[in-house]
Amino acid sequence: MKKETRTVVYDDELRIEAYRFEGIMQPFPSHFHEYYVIGFVERGERVLSCRDKECIIEEGSIVLFNPGDSHACVQSDGGTFDYRGFNISKEVMLDLAEEVTGKQELPGFSENAIYDEEAACHLRSLHEMVMKGTGELGKEETLLFLLSYLIQNYGQPFENCIPECRQEIEKACEYMEEHFTERIYLDRICRHVGLSKSTLLRAFTKEKGVTPYRYLETIRINEAKKLLSEGIPPVEAAIRTGFLDQSHFTNYFNQFIGLAPGSYREIFSEKDWDGGQYGE
């Protein structure tokens, strides 16, 4: 069986993360990100669940996730999965979108899985340049060509991609975002928003695509990523983001991100390293 390899590079010039996963079998549970994800499937077949829809992604598929899109995927062909992709923060995307559209407006992707040879060509070319640290002018140019093409063909205003949520659910989200470093119990959230436990669980899961607990853990993981990128040790990042212990933190981080916290931290290290490749 092909050895599992996970390679991650942060491009300081473009301010984006580039991932390449090879030989992956790990399923990813339902979760969301605060950033955009643009990815390309090189090999393997998975069932992708996103926005209450389910589809098959396979060789040649491009995946597009907006910030907040709850999604999950699992291998469906008994083999392994090869994938390359980019993570782009909302702040960077806002700047890039203004460059290609002339508007200070976040784009929203209307589809989560597409087949498009032209977009795939731009994506592969850009990914190779970022991974090799080459490209100079061509690297930024290719990124703008890719986003211009995707926004033109699959874009809409970002707010149109976010389903309207009940006021109580938004209030619950705000509560968890403000108190994620603390131990939060379901009854505390229910008292805050004025709903029973059963009503909150049903309504929240329907609106957000994840349970309140999964939402809370995702907030913690996203905050931990920021701390790790600043050089904070994993043990301290776990404590500062409200995880019960280091093991709990490491397991969740690996489930959501596909890397151990220490491996993720290393891609932002100032040391001279070998490109951020980790074989397991």
List the helices and strands and how they pair.
Blueprint: E1 5-11, E2 16-24, E3 28-31, E4 36-43, E5 46-50, E6 53-57, E7 62-65, E8 71-75, E9 81-88, H1 90-101, E10 107-109, E11 113-114, H2 117-132, H3 137-154, E12 155-157, H4 167-179, H5 186-193, H6 197-208, H7 212-229, H8 234-240, H9 246-257, H10 261-266, E13 277-279
Q: What is the helix fraction of residues, given as a range?
A: 40-55%
The largest sheet is: 7 strands, antiparallel
Strand content: 15-25%
Residue runs with pLDDT of under 50 for 5 or more positions:
271-280
| Number of DSSP helical runs | 10
Q: So what's the overall shape?
A: globular
Q: Average pLDDT value?
A: 88
**Which sequence of strands runs across the widest sheet?**
11-7-4-9-2-1-13
Give the N-terminus to C-terminus distance in angstroms: 12 Å
